[in-house]
Specification:
single chain, globular
Length: about 230
């Protein structure tokens, strides 16, 4: 299915070994529930790495960009719970994007997702975004075992300054992100290898140094009644 809203928060992270058990309990029992309690947060999903450099991926589908600059969301970011204050400093290799959506389509939510973070060569961003929107993404949706495909771009105006050193963790920002969802790991791998390999994207204007990873769904919490679809 298409993403539930018109904005997406995408978070990649590892966790310090001494905080691992706390992280596994905190994330579904408090943190994701808290986020889904904010009006406009429609669905949260967490994934674990199958083949990726960073172990965990979290996605929040949001009704629209305005939710991410709302007073309530900023208040939650700036006033973490005691459990969050203990757990967040254990994040490692943390990348967080508050993203506007360029493309989203599909038939169902997949149990596997491949994410690719990439940037454009200088002066070629418009051409790369256009090629991904018009050429690459529609073809991805038609591949065997692929259930959905999305293309988003981080918007620094939506991050609320949430980058750099934040409460003991270092946060980096992505630029462009492609996500492929599928029903099997092999199906997602095959589609990514065909359409998102460096030799396919470099001619379209992508820089070297793209970062890809394959993840499997651990759990999802949704509040779709809080937003229009």
């Amino acid at each position: 299915m298409a993403l539930a809203g018109n904005a997406l928060v995408a978070i990649w992270n590892d966790i310090a070994p001494e905080m691992r058990e706390d992280f596994f309990e905190w994330h579904p029992r408090e943190h994701m529930v808290e986020r889904l309690g904010i009006p406009g947060f429609l669905r949260g999903r967490r994934y674990a790495a199958v083949q990726a450099d960073v172990e965990f991926l979290t996605l929040y589908e949001v009704a629209g960009p305005q939710v991410l600059v709302s007073d309530l969301y900023r208040q939650r970011l700036n006033n973490p719970t005691p459990w969050s204050s203990r757990t967040l400093p254990g994040f490692r290799n943390n990348v967080r994007g508050a993203c506007r959506i360029h493309f989203t389509a599909g038939a169902a939510m997949g149990g596997f997702v491949y994410t690719l973070r990439l940037e454009a060569e200088e002066g070629r961003e418009e051409a790369l975004v256009d090629a991904l929107q018009r050429q690459v993404m529609p073809r991805l949706c038609d591949q065997p075992r692929i259930t959905a495909a999305h293309f988003v771009e981080n918007d620094v105006s939506l991050t609320g300054g949430n980058a750099g050193n934040q409460r003991g963790r270092m946060i980096e920002l992505p630029h462009l992100v492609v996500l492929i969802e599928g029903s099997t790991a092999d199906g997602v791998r095959t589609a990514a290898a065909r359409f998102l390999a460096p030799e396919a994207l470099r001619p379209l204007g992508a820089r070297p140094g793209m970062s890809g990873g394959l993840y499997q769904l651990e759990y999802s919490i949704q509040n779709l009644a809080s937003g229009p679809r």
